[in-house]
Every structure is written in C-alpha cells, then in structure tokens.
Amino acid sequence: MKRKPVCLLLLLLFLNLLSGRLMAEDGYRLWLRYDQVQDAARLQAYRQAVNEIIIQGSSPTLSAAQEELQTGLTGLLGQAIPAAQTPTQQNILVAGTPSGSALIKELNLTDKLKAVGDEGYLLLSTTKNGRKYTVIAANTDIGVLYGSFHFLRLLQTQQDISKLSLASAPKIKKRVLNHWDNLDRTVERGYAGFSLWKWHTLPDYIDQRYIDYARANASIGINGTVLTNVNANALVLTPVYLKKVAALANVFRPYGLKVYLTARFSAPIEIGGLKTADPLDPQVRAWWKKKSDEIYTYVPDFGGFLVKANSEGQPGPQNYGRTHADGANMLADAVAANGGIVMWRAFVYSDKEPDDRAKQAYNEFKPLDGQFRDNVLVQVKNGPIDFQPREPFHPLFGAMPKTPLMMEFQITQEYLGQGTTLAYLAPMYKETLEADTYAEGKGSTVAKVVDGTLNNHKLTGIAGVANIGDDRDWTGHQFGQSNWYTFGRLAWDHNLPSEKIADEWLKMTFTNNNRFVAPVKNMMMNSHEAIVNYMTPLGLHHIMGRSHHYGPGPWVEGGPRADWTAVYYHRADAQGIGFDRTKTGSNAVAQYFPPVTRKFASLEKCPEKYLLWFHHVSWDYKVNSGRTLWNELCYKYSSGVDTVRQMQETWNNMEGLVDEERFNHVKMFLTIQEKEAKWWRDACLLYFQTFSKQPIPQDLEKPDHTLDYFMSLDPKFVPGI
Ligand code: GCV
C-alpha cells in the first residue's frame, strides 16, 4: 500500500524529466514558439477576444492555417479554442477569402482586398449581428495563411489586437531561398550540419523537418526554394531525383513554397547523350524543352531554374561563343509555357581577363540589357566582389533598366565568421537596399530597382543563400535564425527597420521581457559593424584564409589566380594600403552613375567605410577622426574586439532571463567569437605593420603572438567547403 504512491511519484518524475528533455529549448521551434503569454492583462484580453475559430472553405492551405491557428492559440492562450463552421460564440476569429467563406463575403471587403493582391491580407476588428469578429481576410488561401502567421505574431509579441485595421502585401514577387546543397548532403558554405534534404530516403520518408521548414518559411512570406547548389549536378534532373523533388514539392505546396532547381548547363551532354550544350543548337533547345515538360509532369507548379554559368568553372553559353542572354533565353523558352522563370546569375568573372574583378559582371551584363526574355531575372549579388563583410552596392543595380534584377544576399556567413559568429545582418542588407544608385535621379534606391518600381517591372525577386542545415537548431548558431527571419521579413517589406525585425524575432524566439529584449537588441544592432571592424575595416576586403575562407589571411598570395588572393585586394605597400579604383587605378568608380562616381572617386567625399575599397591611401593620411590611417586601422580593429567583449558582458547578464540551454549555447559561441576576433585583429595588424612600419598606439592591447605564428596556422577540415 505504502509503496504504490512512491512508484507513482517516481513514474511521474520520470515522465516529467522525459517530457522536460523533449521540450528542451534547443532552438528547434525557431520563432514559432507558442508558449503561454506571460503578461496577465494581455492574456486575459486575448482570451476574451477569441472564443472560437471559423475557417470556411477547404484546401490544404486553409487546413495549414487552421492547424497553425489552433496550435498557436491553444499554446499562447493556455486553453483550447474550439473550431466551428458557423458562429456559436460572441468573440470570433474568422479567416478566409470572399470566394470560400460566406462570413468573409458578408463583410464586404472587396475594395480593401483589391489593394493586397494575390498574397496579401487584411487583419481587422469588426462587429456584426452583435458579435465581435477578428478578421483575417485575403483574396487567396495563401494570403489567409500569411495573415494567420501575422496574427499569431501579434500575440507572440504581445500587441494590442482589439482594434486591428491593417493591410499587408509583399513588395517583391519571388522571395526565394537558395540552398547550396549537394546531392551527397554536404552544403557548400554551410555551417549548420548536413543538408535538410535526405535524398536517399525520399520520396518515401517524409521528415517532419520538411513540414516545419515550410511552416517557418510561410511564417515570414518566403515563397520559393531552390533545393540544389548553383555549382550544379545534372543528376537532379533525372527521373530518380525528380520523384524525390516532387515529394518535397508536395509537402511545401500548401505553404505557398515553390520548388526551383539549379540547371547545369552541360546537362544535355551529361545526362542527355548529346554532343553539345550550345544554346542555339536545335537539338539542345529541344532537349531542354522536353526536360522541362517532364519536370512539370512531376511538379506541376515547378518554379523554374537558377543558373550559374561561365563562372568559377561552371559550363555555360560562352563555351560555344554565345552570350549569357542566349543561354538564359533558351532555358526561359523551355519553361515559359508552364509559367516558369529563369534566375540567371551575374556572378561572373573571367579566368582570362586581367581586369579588376569588381568590374567584370557589369562589363559582361550591361550590354545585354534588353536582350532577355520576359521570364528571366538576372540575379546580382549585393556587392561587386563576393558577399564580403562590407561592400558598396553592385554597379549593375540601376544600370540595366530593361531587365528585372534580382537581389542575391548571403544569409549563410561564409565571410562573416561562419558558424560561430553572432552577426545580425539586417543592417547590412538594408545598407545595400537603401543605397541610392541615382539611375533615374536622386532617390533611385537599390530597393526600388529590386522591387520593380524604378523601371516598372512586374516580375521581381530577391534571393537569400540559406544558412539552414540539419543541426537541431537549424542554423548552427541560435542567432543565425535571426538572419533567416530577417531575410523573409525584408523580402516581404524592405522598409521594415532593422530594430523592429530584431525586436519581433527576440520576443518570439526568446521572451518579451524587456530586461532581455532591450540590451540584446542593442547587441544585435552593433554586431555586424563589430565584425567589419575586426575583419575588414575602412573598406578592406577579401583578406580571409584561402579557399575555406575561415580566419584572417591578408598574406595570401600566389596560386591559380591573382583575384583569389588577398594581396590583389589590399595592395599594401610602403606608401599605403587599398585598391585604387579611381581613374588612376582600375576606374571601377566609372561604372556607377555620376553623382555616385563623384562621391566614391573623391578621397575626401568617399564614405570612410569604403575608403580602401576605392582608394590606395597613404599610411599618414588624416581620416575624419583626426588620426592617421595607420592609427585608425589599429583603433578600428581594436574596437571590433572590444565590441565583442561588450557583447559577452551583455549576454552574461541575461542568465536566468532565458532558458539555460540556449543561454549556454550563445555564451560558449561568444567565447569562440572573442578568440576569433582577437585572432583577426592581431594577425592583420601585425601583417600590415610590416608595410606601415609604425607602432600600434600605446593605449591599445598588443598581440600576444608573432606574425609568423599567425601565418603558420593552418586550420584543417573547416566546414562548408
Ligand atoms: C557556390 C563564392 C563562394 C563559392 C560559391 C560562389 C558563388 O565564390 O566561395 O562557394 O559557389 O561564391 O556564389 O557561386
């Protein structure tokens, strides 16, 4: 008799521990955590506002919305909310479209809905027949799903929902993740484990991750995913793989996520048995058409192709003396009848051309403006080199008015400390989007080029190279999630301030407690600049370790090509440092519109953050702070390390305000980051000092190793290669 309760207690304890383990905050839930609202007044208000959910109409997308609302509200309100088909309660959450839902139709929202298009939605509070309604209305089911996520976000961030009156629609049409995932599940420049796509067990095994991945993307409005690496493998276009692709597309479809594939230009030879891949050859054209039609039999809403051609060893139309437009148009013709698009990358630089690498994409693509089919987007990286910690905007933005240009940002942190660095990238993305190209006069921002408003393009796009892998927390570093989130939010609305995005993400991912949110948001906002400072201040670029791109390598020289070295870019010598891209140098400045050219070309007017990008500057040149360039470089490098130390302090103060598991994760990664920041600072300053021949200012911390030591470091098996 006595032993029974003890056994029961032990059992309960065991179950508790077990569920505790299962519920551990390991980051898997991303920002879609629906734990009960902590603020008592808000909780009560939410409970009053929603007694019942009504979604009339039926489709897989509406079911997804229903399920998300049900799960979300049950968690957030701490009580189950019943679903009904017609009103039985006083306070009702109703979601739907006028065509699928009689209730929504009766609300007469036609005019308001006109403004939100195919993917947008309205969130409204209204009353009818004595009942109070919270309304999620859209023209399409996917709009309803997006609106549902927005509504849940309001609760997750504890906003007032009593007088809702908002409309939201995306500014950019194609909001696409680019996975650089190989078929063997390694991920090029991936730092979060292996690829999410388990090709070996597809199509039969559907991992829960695929569904949660789609949910996460839908929650931030991402509507496309390129499953495979731009350094492409033609095998993905064969039936064995297309079946697997179709299985993923089936999972993603209800969430509005279209599947795209990378097309290897030589596929007609490699898997088609042809002798050529010449885009003007009728047999080659017929092969791609047939192949595309075949893909559509597997994936009826297939999005289209992303192509890296004649770049870094990839085959392309130039192998046959044809242009990038010839190549892109051939593929565009192959998918056009089925509504597909081609995203053709402008990331090209020749292995024969000795010209400044920063100029080559512009030289190659600008003359092709107007030659691309209507269903082609030219995908341009944010800057002219390659996702460096900081780059000026790419001169192609604004320079091809007849061609829709798709922005390519890198979410994965290839050049930003990779998997172990806390870098919040919204400020960096926004710096590019807000840059003024002056293409059509003042105010011609990059954002307006990309969202099509500058030159009246209907087809518009933005791509983010994904930082997602099969690590339990998806992104390797808990804070990496913020950049996935940011990419989606900015793709939807590039006007959103970085602070607001950080605020939302922190509240949804961690807690609404302002003792946590305020300092950590501040830490995030300073994080990108800190990295620029300890890696590549004042416009320095491409001085990282060779090939794996991990750690400092300003001494990197020699090898297969000059523009894969560091010395090519920093050009340090006894006189000074920096790449002269003015008239006296490569004249890359001339690729911008005159007001921008004038600014960048002038040593005095050039923003200091781009100084050494555009100018070779003498060590004794006085910068804005009044310091010499050498001293400024020392201070910048040191301030980057100092900021990381402040970040550590800030985070350490957060102990107890968030769960232990994620607290410790971030704490340990910040320890690594501090070491890496110091490594960058010391290695770079010691190396550049061999040219400046000047001391590191007295008041700054001194390196505790020699330059030889740093140059001898040779990290092995760096992930992501
Ligand atoms: C996918 C850089 C990266 C490569 C990447 C390439 C690209 O060079 O280091 O890994 O290849 O950019 O964007 O195509």
Q: Brief overview, please?
A:
This protein has 721 residues and is of the alpha/beta class. It has helices at 3-22, 40-49, 60-77, 102-106, 110-114, 141-156, 208-219, 239-252, 267-270, 282-298, 324-336, 357-365, 426-433, 446-450, 480-492, 498-509, 514-535, 567-570, 594-601, 611-614, 629-652, 660-692, 707-712, and strands spanning 52-55, 83-84, 91-96, 121-128, 131-137, 165-168, 174-178, 224-226, 258-262, 304-307, 341-345, 376-381, 405-410, 461-465, 576-577, 617-618. It has 3 domains: 6-168, Chitobiase/beta-hexosaminidase domain 2-like (Chitobiase, domain 2, 2-Layer Sandwich); 174-503, Glycosidases (TIM Barrel), CATH 3.20.20; 533-579 and 616-712, Alpha-glucuronidase, C-terminal domain (Alpha-d-glucuronidase, C-terminal Domain, Alpha-Beta Complex), CATH 3.90.1330.10.
Task: Please describe the structure with a list of short key phrases separated by commas or semicolons.
Chitobiase, domain 2; six-stranded mixed β-sheet; 721 residues; disordered N terminus; Alpha-d-glucuronidase, C-terminal Domain; alpha/beta; TIM Barrel; 23 helices; eight-stranded parallel beta barrel; 3 domains; binds 4-O-methyl-alpha-D-glucopyranuronic acid
Write down the CATH topology of the largest domain. Answer: TIM Barrel
Beta-strand proportion: 5-15%
Main β sheet profile? 8 strands, parallel, barrel
Main-sheet strand order equals 7-8-9-10-11-12-13-14
List the helices and strands and how they pair.
Blueprint: H1 3-22, H2 40-49, E1 52-55, H3 60-77, E2 83-84, E3 91-96, H4 102-106, H5 110-114, E4 121-128, E5 131-137, H6 141-156, E6 165-168, E7 174-178, H7 208-219, E8 224-226, H8 239-252, E9 258-262, H9 267-270, H10 282-298, E10 304-307, H11 324-336, E11 341-345, H12 357-365, E12 376-381, E13 405-410, H13 426-433, H14 446-450, E14 461-465, H15 480-492, H16 498-509, H17 514-535, H18 567-570, E15 576-577, H19 594-601, H20 611-614, E16 617-618, H21 629-652, H22 660-692, H23 707-712
Parallel strand pairs: 1-2, 1-3, 3-5, 7-8, 7-14, 8-9, 9-10, 10-11, 11-12, 12-13, 13-14
Antiparallel strand pairs: 4-5, 4-6, 15-16
Helix pairs in contact: 3-6, 10-11, 15-16, 16-17, 17-21, 21-22
4-O-methyl-alpha-D-glucopyranuronic acid (GCV) binds at residues 180, 188-189, 230-231, 308, 312, 347, 386, 414.
